[in-house]
Design a protein that fits this description.
2 domains, mainly alpha, homodimer, Arc Repressor Mutant, subunit A, 115 residues
Chain lengths: 115, 115
């Protein structure tokens, strides 16, 4: 198996609730809990090939959801804009506007942290 | 039929690509093009009751997607934060920072307009 691609961990955060239960469990164990395919197979009492196939189907479904809904893509755009706001506001280095700038940065941080 | 609830039009923007084709068509015609159930029935060559049932299923699916993915909910939070940033930045009424404030407002507007 090639190296783990953690984009699936991110997409699982967004779309995990749309997956079938066994696919969600496998993604969770493989990407979030760092189990190997063999360990998952043992734990779930199915073949290693069965785990591999379900994992591939789950990954394909997560990619398809992102292509249709684009939540990760949207979040990256929101988050980039919010980071720009933080950077721009830090250039207003003026005691008079300190509180306002702090409030602006807090609002921008909400956007970044919301995910 | 009770009054049209345009939340479905918004949810359709987000999740329309996840619906089956006939459900997507019916939501599109009913909410975005303002067809009546009878007009849709005639256009699609199915019974009015068939349109009604498919519409109810489509609405239920859209609500279920929002409950699982919460894209509209997230967008409302992002958008509220971005509006607060615009409001806060307008309180910095200072020629010296005019360009910076304009840039901050543009970034916030990107968030609101991204949807």
């Amino acid at each position: 198996m090639s190296e783990k691609n953690f984009i699936y961990s991110i997409l699982y955060d967004y779309y995990g609730d749309l997956l079938k239960e066994n696919q969600a469990t496998i993604i969770e164990m493989y990407y979030n809990l760092d189990y190997s395919l063999s360990e998952i197979a043992e734990e779930m009492n199915i073949s290693r090939q069965g785990v591999h196939d379900a994992l591939k189907r789950a990954e394909k479904n997560l990619i398809a959801y992102e292509q249709k809904i684009k939540l990760h893509d949207k979040y990256m755009k929101y988050s980039r804009a919010a980071e720009n706001i933080i950077k721009l506001s830090s250039e207003i280095d003026d005691e008079k506007y300190k509180d306002l700038i702090e409030k602006i940065r807090l609002e921008a941080a909400k956007i970044i942290n919301e995910g």
